[in-house]
Amino acid sequence: MRKPVTKPVKKKPQVKKSTPSRGDKRLLTNHYKAFTDALNQSISSPLSTLVTCTIIAITLFLTSTLLLTLKSLQQATDYINSSSQVTIYLKTSAQENTISEWLNQLKQDPEIKAVTYISAAQALQELAQQKDFSGLLTNVDQNPLPPVVMLKLNPTTPSKIQDLSQKLRTMPLVASINLDFDWLNRLSALIQLGNRLSLVLSIVFSIGVLFIISHAIQGATQKNRQEMDILELIGASTPYIRRPFLYLGFLLGLGAGIISLILLIVLLIALKTPLFELLRSYNLSYSTLFSLSKVFFLTLLISTSLGWVGAWLAFYKHAKIS
């Protein structure tokens, strides 16, 4: 009797799980040790750490407050530009059919969002409905009021609004134009000047922060000079020796950023009521001007980056001298 032929069972290939190598584990361990050493060093001298972080925090607070104020003014100016309106007073001798043709031309202008026309008779009727003027208009034989055209403009710049007003003044039907955007032009010029000034101050303050952190890290290197010399003698690499000081600079920058944000929150709380009243007068909401999450993220990113760079420069200077 023949035995049944059994097919050999194919073994499934075993997928090797990726595990971190010894080198990766050693690197993570070194980073963890460097971080804990930096944390312990900052905690061991709390007063010095607090003073350094506070000085840096005040610098960051002044810079962020200036930039936030300029950004808010810029957005408020853009909103005013987007809701700008031009009032045109027509000549009393203008005929209705001529005015109607001219209004159709204005509606086709891409810079104009909406056109509202108030005839002389309609303006007189609205004025007569007001109690203060009802008695004065009874003795008037002719309508002294001119036709009025109100233009709602699309979002634009003050310079373009001025160009449009100059073009409208040359038209034969126009008697005068009510447009007061000189203050807005001055405000825009001041905002541009403030942006340039804030850029210069940000660079100067950043250099100051780098000097403060470098000075703090230099003090730490002098304090641990013997330990660093021993590590060099036993063959420790430069990145290994430098790593704790980089983390110390990172922690100083992080602490300064947190203190700066606390100061900024206190300022916003103190200005909450007048700030909301100002925003309400311009029909603006708090969220349209301030993105606090972006401010918090950028403040912490800049402060920690400056701390890291300042520590690196301090260690580079120390290594060059030694």
Jot down its keywords.
single chain; 322 residues; alpha+beta; Alpha-Beta Plaits; 4-stranded antiparallel β-sheet; 4 strands; 7% strand
* Secondary structure: number of strands: 4
Radius of gyration: 35 Å
One letter per element, helices H and strands E, the order comes to HHEHEHHEHEHHHHHH
In this structure, how is the largest beta sheet organized?
A: 4 strands, antiparallel
Strand order of the largest sheet: 2-3-1-4
β-strand percent reads 5-15%
Tell me the distance between the termini. Answer: 91 Å
Mean pLDDT: 79
Tally of domains: 2
Share of helix among residues? 55-70%
Count of discrete alpha- or pi-helical segments spanning 4 or more residues: 12
List low-confidence stretches: none
Structural class: alpha+beta
Give the CA-based shape. rod-shaped
